[in-house]
Design a protein that fits this description.
alpha+beta
Length: 141
């Protein structure tokens, strides 16, 4: 079971890395739920997830993992690591700065019947906003 889930997870990550969006979507349950804990958003279904992903990819089009690892247990995969990107587009109302950001991320993925059913993502939004200069006005306070 865990070997099968590990293989499935690796297939999803490879499709995601190579930009095969339709293939990635084929691994997701139609009613997938994604909790973006940093933004306080819960996304329901593939359409909402795609819109959120488009916003992030426009803001950080060159996002890439630096170091990542994962752990499989039962129906769950925990992914943790560090990513980096440049701020090339609007992000939460802050215009592009071109600045590089580096941040840690942890995602808890739960699978059901061979499909990704639920994702809970944790990352440091405050750190990202600080790195793009969005919070520089706080230094004066």
């Amino acid at each position: 079971m865990q070997e099968d889930l590990d293989h499935l997870f690796r297939e999803i990550m490879e499709a995601r890395k190579s930009g095969e969006i339709e293939k990635v979507l084929s691994y997701l349950a139609d009613d997938i739920v994604v909790e973006d804990t940093a933004m306080g958003k819960t996304l329901h279904g593939k359409v909402e997830l795609m819109k959120h992903g488009e916003m992030l990819s426009k803001a950080f089009s060159n996002a890439q993992p630096i170091r990542f690892d994962h752990l499989v247990s039962g129906d769950t995969v925990v992914v943790y690591g560090t990513a980096k990107a440049n701020h090339y587009g609007d992000f939460l109302g802050y215009p592009a700065t071109g600045r590089e950001v580096e941040f840690r991320v942890c995602e808890v993925l739960r699978f059901q019947e061979g499909k990704l059913q639920h994702v809970r993502a944790y990352y440091n939004l405050f750190g990202i906003l600080t790195q793009i200069g969005a919070l520089e006005h706080l230094k004066a306070a």
